[in-house]
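User: I'm putting together a teaching handout on how multi-component assemblies are represented. Below are the sequence lines for each component of a complex, exactly as they appear in our records. Could you produce the 3D structure of the whole assembly as structure tokens, so the students can see both representations side by side? Please keep the chain order the same as the input.
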Amino acid sequence: MNEEFICRCEEVTRKEIEEAIADGATTVAGVKKRTRAGMGLCQGRTCRRLVTQMLSKHKAAEQIMPDTSRPPVRAITVEEIINSEDR
Amino acid sequence: MQTSDVVIIGGGVVGCSIAYHLGKRGIPTHVIEKDDIAMGTSGACDKAVLLQSKNPGIHLELALKSVKMFPELQKSLDTDIEFLNHGCMIVIQNENQWKVMEGFVERQKKLGLDVKLLDKNEARDRQPALSEDILGSTYSPMDCEANPIYLTLGLYRGAKKHGVKFSLGTKVTGIKLEKGRIKSVETDSGEILCKYVVNATGVYAPTIGRMVGLNIPIVPRRGQIIITEPVPKLIHGGLNCARYITAKFRPELLGTDEMAKLGVGLALGQTENGNLLIGGTREFVGFNKTTTHKALKAILKHAASIVPAIKNVHVIRSFAGLRPYTPDGLPILGEVPEVPGFIMAAGHEGDGIALSAITGRIISEVIADGKPSDDLNIDMTKLSLDRFKNVDVNEFRESHNCYSFAS
Ligand SMILES: Cc1cc2nc3c(=O)[nH]c(=O)nc-3n(C[C@H](O)[C@H](O)[C@H](O)COP(=O)(O)OP(=O)(O)OC[C@H]3O[C@@H](n4cnc5c(N)ncnc54)[C@H](O)[C@@H]3O)c2cc1C
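Assistant: Of course. Below is the structure of the complete assembly, with chains in the same order as your input.
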């Protein structure tokens, strides 16, 4: 059970996330800072929901701040950005 | 009502380092953090523990003393802070920069920094990914790095182990004085009686200062950073460019084009996992923490002119952090004589990770012994709030696009 990976990109286990919550994390961002969950290639698309679920056992769901979304949403190359139109 | 000898406001790298040192001295300490550990600037920054980016003078002296403390931290903290001593190069792209860096390096050497200039071939031997078009670089084997988030968390856990109390998710809303001296700190979940208050709130320090009638000259200086997918080893040690040094200390010399306005200068490194961290900018935009397409594009264009191989790498994320900037770029440290018991520890600009260790030691000694120990040999007047007594703080804030106080 404890070997279950919550974040597959960074291979973060359920146990590690529980430890992060015990260390004081109350938000998705707090768990991310402590474990790297959500920092991998998919940027938390799968694990964000699972982490939120785990946090909600300790805190009312509406108190769990949504994680900040940081562009780009999809991975693009450095060159594509350099050649992109100014916005 | 709760009591504690010391209340530290702010759970960033600075507050946690001070807490760790006070905890080790056995001084009752309570840290109040409105969000969570490393959720402010200390969680939105780079990993350099650099000496080369420090101005020759007290700035470099502080950094030299701070860096010496890191190996011990790596050993004694239970968290791996990923401290590495693997050197850094500052890339030089034209003759003008060469002249500036020549002088800079000479002055740094006099203070004991092991640093030298490399010609193009020497630079490319050391860092094969560098472009053919560079002129040369500097190199210092003394530069280091550490993981800023793990460092902050490690100091937090170390402080807790030494008995320091932490209230996370708790906001300081006021400070009470009695006969002009610190009496207590009010938070959104109660009041704490104390003898000392440490203002370690980074860019928020002016808001806390106002609670005791002080006008503190600190404004946010935004930095944007890009993170790429993991790639095989490309960058060895730290890599900055001469523009970075200019953007930090003399931005007016960069000119007036878009890149200059954004304060673009290269800060490039690769993590253990292989991700590239590509920075960055230096912008005065108040408390705005968003990233902008314009800046990301300018950062990447500049970075690719120095390391062309990054062009084909995928970007996965970007973020921005706010450096706490003071009029002379140095932190404000020490007790404020007008408000006995009120201690400043903020304004570390782009150096808070590197200077966190020495700041923790200085402030803990100021509290425990009344002043930093003689063997540290630090001229505290150069770091005092009082050094800005002739600065028009409101004018400083407004000329740096800071029109509000963060709540
Ligand atoms: C893009 C970028 C790159 C950088 N790269 C480097 C680098 O490579 N090397 C280096 O040495 N430095 C670097 N820095 C600088 C470094 O990040 C900062 O100097 C350092 O993090 C400042 O730490 P701090 O503890 O003072 O502030 P913070 O980490 O911001 O901590 C202040 C804390 O105070 C809390 N707070 C505020 N108000 C209240 C209140 N009323 N009640 C309770 N809590 C409150 C906040 O929530 C926050 O957590 C960089 C900065 C940026 C932006």
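A couple of points students might notice: The domain at 5-85 of chain A is CATH 1.10.10.1100 (Arc Repressor Mutant, subunit A). Strands of chain A lie at 5-7, 12-13, 76-77.
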